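Quick one, T. Sequence first:
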Amino acid sequence: MIGMGLSWLAMLAATVGWLSPVPAAIVQEVIDVVVIANALRALQPAGRPLHKAISVEAGVVLRHDHVLFSRILDQLQKIADALDDATPETAAALIVEA
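Structure tokens:
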């Protein structure tokens, strides 16, 4: 509602000649960015700190999973690259492997 209200004020200012077209467009973009940034606050957990520390053990597990996931992504990239030149039979086998 605030964004719509500010947009109406900007349009009114442009209508009476207080804002020329280019500054009016810039004002509208600024209003949009402010409203979107405000709306993004809803994605933050309520009443909890933004950065919660994790245990060393959890960090080790996450690092292990990250390395494993990275290897899997590398393998998928190789398969995807091989699909460009593969015959239909070979492509089918590569897709099954993926």
